[in-house]
Amino acid sequence: MRRSRLLLPTLKETPAEAEIVSHRLMLRAGMVRQASAGIYNWLPLGYRVLRKVEQIVREEQDATGAQEMLMPTIQSADLWRESGRYDDYGKEMLRIQDRHERDLLYGPTNEEQITDIFRKSVMSYRELPKLLYHIQWKFRDEVRPRFGVMRGREFLMKDAYSFDTDFDGAKRAYNKMFVSYLRIFARMGLRAIPMEAETGPIGGNLSHEFIILADTGESEVFCHRDYIEHDVLSHAVDYEADLEPIVGFWTEKYARTDEKHDPAAFAAEVPADKQVSRRGIEVGHIFYFGTKYSAPMGATVSTADGQSVPVHMGSYGVGVSRLPAAIIEASHDEAGIIWPDAVAPYTVGLINLKTGDAACDTACEDLYNRLNSNGFDTLYDDREERAGAKFADMDLIGLPWQVIVGPRGLANGQVELKRRATGERHEVAMADVPARIAAHV
Ligand SMILES: Nc1ncnc2c1ncn2[C@@H]1O[C@H](COP(=O)(O)OP(=O)(O)O)[C@@H](O)[C@H]1O
Ligand SMILES: [Mg+2]
Asked: For ligand 1, atom 4, which residue shows the shortest CA distance?
């Protein structure tokens, strides 16, 4: 993509309304713009990150055997009356009437909808287990939408739902999601720690929140230090094998959210030098809630001995549109964002220090084509701007690599290659640039 053509309205000044660094940087880097309170437009650069995040979530969910589908944003109030949540949900629910005065709502979550699909489609225990998910916009009329996309009113969530005949089956589904979540966040360069959590308005009795440690987080959390350093991606996972050893490792030591925190147990179980008490951002949340919806809504299956039993369910959410902000909270410096490679909107930023100079223009066009054809998405800053402004913009938007082309280096066939995360710079021969990036040096 050529910078001169891209809709990328970067800002030099810090927007006054933004309280936390990720919100400031998302506005300054031209990723999002507020449409109304807690509702955001995703501009091209931001949307590329959102799609990469979504794709990682999709790949890791698919790996568990979960099946992707799509449910609508607008739901019927009658379904929610069946579960009893139409009244319970209160003002957080956006309620709508159509022209026939039928009550509708913009879905804040999808337990009722998926339970309705299930009860109409699955009749026998032989068809279980089932694990279904979708990635869809939600609306919750939050009292205090804040911190940009971190706590929006409209937000994108991946929500999965599991159906099993009994608790043991449901626990196997829970374990699959638990392990899948560890991998999802690790692939985004995040260290997310599963912490015992309260089950909240969705209800139930087994629940973990996946938390990223950050001073700007809304939750207070307490955990054993060993969990912070653990490398998740070093071993492959077989989702058909018993996952209890992995889940056991992550649940044997203390890691709890505020509501579940017990200071006496924390002091007794965790040595003083291992006690971590910090703030955190919730990026995912998994629940087992048994027959809470299947019983009132009549989602039953017939068993081997001909009985009819309500299915055991769980639900599993990832805050897809919260993640770009959470990643920025975890990865930035004074100059701007530092994207982990896996979610960067482009891999390379190509800077032409002297647009209009024939040698620089030719070299840049050549590099631009070569990088793209080698599979490195490249944003080429071809504008007639001061070098200083181009450097500042490129650091701000935080692409992992910068290739800087100027007349002085070119005289010797050299360009500069800079790694955004470390600031390390190397003079390299033009022809070597793609190979150097591929080799990460
Ligand atoms: N208002 C919001 N804005 C952005 N993301 C949200 C919002 N509310 C929840 N999420 C994300 O969706 C995930 C699943 O939501 P859930 O656990 O059902 O919400 P809650 O924790 O508010 O009950 C959360 O872990 C969080 O990452
Ligand atoms: Mg939650």
From this structure: 151
